[in-house]
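2024-03-11 09:14:02 DEBUG pipeline.ingest accepted 1 chain
2024-03-11 09:14:02 DEBUG pipeline.ingest length=173
2024-03-11 09:14:03 DEBUG pipeline.predict start
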Amino acid sequence: MPRVRDLLYRLRPSGAPGAANPPGVPADRAREAADELAPVFLLLEPVETECQGIVAAAQHDAEAQRAHDREVVRDLLASAEARVPAEREAARVRARRSADERAAAAAGRGEASAEQVRRRCEEQLPHHVDLVVARVWELVTEPTTEPATEPAAEPAVESAAEPAQRHDTGVGP
């Protein structure tokens, strides 16, 4: 007859199914771990409750901070919208001042350019007057080869070259 010890040995936990093992009951490792850790989890319940309280308080504080931040943003937007006309006016004044400065600079450059043209005219005008006077003097003193008779009727429209060919003084038609 088998002994009690041999009967209890058959009820010992055995490994996973697979290779041949001595007879026994399949081991329930999850239940064994749960049984082993149950006292530890019981000790951690107050800590878990405290953590849930901390998380709830943090969520409440975060919502309060978001509400405060929304209010601050609304105030900032209202302040910015109130400053818009003044800022636009200031920007208009700055743009006008900048445009005036650019216009003054352009006018200054134009005056400098005009002064340079005046100076060149003053430098070159006597030379050109001398050239014109010399040419007119040549035309006036040049001997005429035309007969002394009265010329035929002149055409009504003169070309640009005809007054120089007629050798007249340019007075009258």
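2024-03-11 09:14:41 DEBUG pipeline.report The radius of gyration is 58 Å.
2024-03-11 09:14:41 DEBUG pipeline.predict end
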